[in-house]
């Protein structure tokens, strides 16, 4: 049985501002913008390009705690390209940082929710390099 995340709800203080930020600045269009009048609820669903999982920005679900900062991490193929695209659109985005577990750039939405964009390391290449080094070391030891 596969389990896949489809939606992550995030409560915001100003849903129009959040929608405008993601559509007009980040460049991710809204999939839905719905009002449930009997529940005094509004939600805007936005799916990052290429993702199977959406963010659902919500106004009116107090149990989610509007203004409570969330940390969300997305995977991108190229952190430098993601950084350049966001910066070009006017997003305040951090410089790309290289760490052993990936390359990262970060930005925040108007409510301070933190979005980390991670370029995964090439684990297969790293494993092949380690195996080659181990084989080379073993060969050096037998020739000595």
UniProtKB/TrEMBL annotation:
Pfam families according to UniProt: Glyoxalase (PF00903)
Span of domain VOC: 4-120
InterPro entries xref list: Glyas_Bleomycin-R_OHBP_Dase (IPR029068), Glyas_Fos-R_dOase_dom (IPR004360), VOC_core (IPR037523)
Transmembrane segments: none
Protein name per the record: Glyoxalase
